[in-house]
Amino acid sequence: MARQWKWGENPDKLNKVELQKLEQDGLDIIDEIVNVYAVNGFESIPEEKFSLFKWAGVYQQKPKKDGYFMMRIRIPGGVLTSEQARVLAQLGQEYGRGLIDVTTRQAVQYHWLRIEHFPDIFRRLGEVGLHSYEACGDCPRTIVGNPLAGIDANELIDTRPIVKALEKEFLLNRDFSNLPRKYKMSISSSIYNPANAQINDLSFTPAVKEIDGEEVVGFHVWVGGGLSNRPHLAKQLDIFVRPEQVVDVAVGITTVFRDYGYREKRHRARLKFLVADWGPEKFLEVLTGIIGPYPKRGEDKIADWNAGYFTGVHPQKQEGYSYVGLNIPIGRTSAEEFFQLADLADQYGSGSLRTVNTQNIIISDVPNEKVEKLLQEPLLKRLSPRPKAFEGHAVSCTGVEFCNLALTETKGLMKRVVEYLDEHVELDTPIRLHINGCPNSCGQQQIADIGLMGGKMKTANGMQEAYTISVGGHLYGEGEFNTQLKGRVLANDVAPVLKELVVFFKENKQEGENFTRF
Ligand code: SF4
């Protein structure tokens, strides 16, 4: 019997996932995979166990009967060493048909894995400090951070040690392995909010406050953000948190979610619903009962929003060094390219790479005198530091190719759309395009300048894949989700319809206006 927590909603009406989690903690599945199912094969896995595989970071790939799996690897804050990148490349090459996707939470995903592969993958990831555990499931997922942490001239403090401390506290911690639903944290001290604070369950953003006559650098705290098909923007709590208090506050907030979060209906179980019902004041009152009183909010230090685009060559806060942001087209790369990235990071930088929530990658710590030579490397022809405008601002979820929940294809369509737009429209300001293959919003379409969401449409030729179009999403200030336009567009019509939309923008915008502020 798994450990039981107090339930916030009607305890007699727990949904069936909750009942299963009462029987067995999701983390138990890791040992079962290694010791039972990997030994006895795919056919030996009882159907009801598959839903627990998420705690190992694993989903069944489409079609389920074929016995292939997708695995997500957490990369806390997106900080990756060349040694880790090589292991990711080796495993992708040996087991994942050479395919590696970078996700919108700075993680990477493999496809085509078989149950027999898992023990070796878990072991080899663990040897370099990487894990797939709890990258999925009703638990604390990959912790998102500022991909420039430690090298960023625009951050107040280096958040890498805090990301590490959070990862240490939450990963494989059975106090928090049975939350009502998935739980996403982010932390950044950049004034440009690159970790998208408003769309996480819990976020820490930069702030300062005068305490006892001294200016203290710390964080403000946001709770209850999240996308999916009922998106909510997070709300700020009226507290100021010092860097050394972040873990305590995160533990307190996660405890509130665990003990008071809704467990009756799956679609109302995310923290955002509790925060929406309680409001930030009541939430803080309950939190204070757990962690004690904290100082009130100080001065907010978010100045603007960088949606996570760092392509090109940029100076680091360390004088004489630059980071080079590379575009991974539609977030899909390969084991071969990951090997090369690791080599380039060693050859030109300090062996450090950063994954970005826009599904791109950064090579950091490049001495300025080596930058020109790095830019000549053949790999940078495809993973370009200067991508075309639309290709360089396109985000896509996995879609029907591998995802069991998908209603439509995504990456292939997005590739065709951006190629078409780059060929037909020239713009002086980028437009961010995001696509989801279903309302779950792994592609974060609600915060896009132009968001596409896949669904089905009845036509004279039967049901066909079609997409809604939404415009004007952003996370400037408190943030705003985009607005859905009327109707749906068939896959083949998406590119020409978006061209019309973009040309209208181009012809009517004032100088200096971007799509969001149009
Ligand atoms: Fe799958 Fe939907 Fe997520 Fe896309 S948004 S990866 S289709 S669940």
TrEMBL record:
Stored PROSITE patterns: NIR_SIR (PS00365)
Keyword 4Fe-4S appears in the UniProt entry: yes
Nitrite/Sulfite reductase ferredoxin-like domain: residues covered: 63-127, 314-378
Superkingdom, natural source: Bacteria
Every Nitrite/sulphite reductase 4Fe-4S domain range: 136-287, 395-518
Keywords per UniProt: 4Fe-4S, Heme, Iron, Iron-sulfur, Metal-binding, Oxidoreductase
Cross-referenced SUPFAM superfamilies: Nitrite and sulphite reductase 4Fe-4S domain-like (SSF56014), Nitrite/Sulfite reductase N-terminal domain-like (SSF55124)
InterPro entries hit by this protein: NIR_SIR_4Fe-4S (IPR051329), NiRdtase/SiRdtase_haem-b_fer (IPR005117), Nit/Sulf_reduc_fer-like_dom_sf (IPR036136), NO2/SO3_Rdtase_4Fe4S_dom (IPR006067), NO2/SO3_Rdtase_4Fe4S_sf (IPR045854), NO2/SO3_Rdtase_FeS/sirohaem_BS (IPR006066)
Annotated Pfam families: NIR_SIR (PF01077), NIR_SIR_ferr (PF03460)
Gene Ontology molecular function, alphabetical: 4 iron, 4 sulfur cluster binding; heme binding; metal ion binding; oxidoreductase activity
PANTHER family noted in UniProt: FERREDOXIN--NITRITE REDUCTASE, CHLOROPLASTIC (PTHR32439:SF0)
Family to which this protein belongs: Belongs to the nitrite and sulfite reductase 4Fe-4S domain family.
Name of this chain's protein: Nitrite/sulfite reductase
